[in-house]
Design a protein that fits this description.
The protein has helices spanning 24-28, 46-60, 68-81, 122-131, 154-165, 210-221, 233-237, 269-281; strands at residues 4-7, 10-13, 31-39, 42-43, 87-94, 112-119, 133-139, 170-174, 180-183, 187-191, 196-199, 225-228, 241-246, 250-257, 260-261. With 285 residues, it is an alpha+beta fold. The strands form two sheets. Strands 7, 8, 9, 10, 11, 12, 13, 14 and 15 form a nine-stranded mixed β-sheet that branches. Bound molecules: pyridoxal-5'-phosphate.
Length: 285
């Protein structure tokens, strides 16, 4: 079955789907994106993802390309046309096509919208979760507005590649104070020796992950001890458990940091329990 992509009002075969060379997303990374998990053919936490999309667009002064109910139809239709049961739907909105000039185009053009969807191999994800994964730490060399889910991801690309080059699957960014900010494409968490779940506050230095937000609800409802505070690399080395969260990985246990085993070097009990509990606290649409 050939994949279908939505591009600016049309559903097209993947190989024929393209945007103009002067799209500002291509020229300047002048755009934002969202990724939602698809589970059983339904979108997970669409409402929260769309609220964050609106916020990212507002911060960059890009107009919402269509009303949210219409965008929701496009997301669901792209999932349906690609027959995605379990997988991801990707949405990108850029400032649109204009002659190359740094300043915003005047008059303002229309934003470009692209939606794609793809299946994920459920079994291999579960296998990865039961094995756990390795992360490395790298200096956080990103701009300050990482709260915006911008397509400008070059530091994240380089960090992820550095991880892959070392046989790890994720890189954790570390700020000037030696504190972990977040992963290249995930939020970072540890569980301390006395069982407290710790993650950095989302006020500064990280993207406010939707999975993170929902997991905070789950942690409180499950009666676990929670501390929203920055943690250092040294604390992470000494942690009982570690894990990352993102729409594509949900809760993914981390078993090695910079080559050192976390706890006993196996996925932790709390991470595994939160992975199982997560979808009870998520919204489906
Ligand atoms: N932080 C970064 C830098 C990300 O790229 C992502 C997801 O891609 C996340 C955190 C997790 O966000 P979410 O849970 O909304 O997928």
């Amino acid at each position: 079955m050939s994949r279908i992509a939505y591009v600016n009002g049309r559903y097209l075969p993947h190989r024929a789907a393209s945007v103009h060379i002067e799209d500002r997303g291509y020229q300047f990374a002048d755009g934002v994106y969202e990724v939602c998990e698809v589970r059983g053919g339904r979108l997970v936490d669409e409402r929260r993802h769309m609220a964050r999309l609106q916020r990212s667009l507002t911060e960059l002064r890009i107009p919402l390309p269509m009303p949210l109910p219409a965008l929701s139809v496009v997301l669901h239709e792209t999932v349906r046309r690609n027959r995605v049961g379990n997988g991801l739907v990707y949405l990108q909105v850029t400032r649109g096509v204009a002659r190359r000039d740094f300043a915003f185009p005047s008059p303002e053009g229309s934003p470009s919208v692209v939606v794609t969807a793809r299946r994920l191999d459920f079994a291999s994800n579960e296998k990865r979760a039961s094995d756990g994964m390795s992360v490395i730490t790298v200096p956080d060399n990103r701009w300050e507005r990482v709260d915006i889910k911008s397509v400008s991801l070059l530091p994240n690309v380089l960090a992820k590649q550095a991880a892959y080059d070392k046989g790890a699957r994720e890189a954790w960014f570390v700020d000037h104070d030696g504190q972990v900010t977040e992963g290249a494409s995930s939020n970072a968490w540890i569980v301390t020796a006395d069982g407290k779940v710790v993650t950095r506050p989302a006020e500064r230095g990280i993207l406010r992950g939707i999975t993170r937000t929902v997991l905070l609800d789950a942690i409180k409802a499950e009666g676990l001890k929670l501390e929203e505070r920055p943690f250092t690399v040294a604390e992470a080395y000494a942690a009982k458990e570690a894990f990352v969260t993102s729409a594509s990985q949900i809760v993914m246990p981390v078993v090695r940091i910079d080559g050192r085993p976390v706890g006993e070097g196996r996925p932790g009990r709390i991470a595994a329990a939160l992975r199982t509990a997560f979808h009870r606290y998520a919204e489906f649409s």
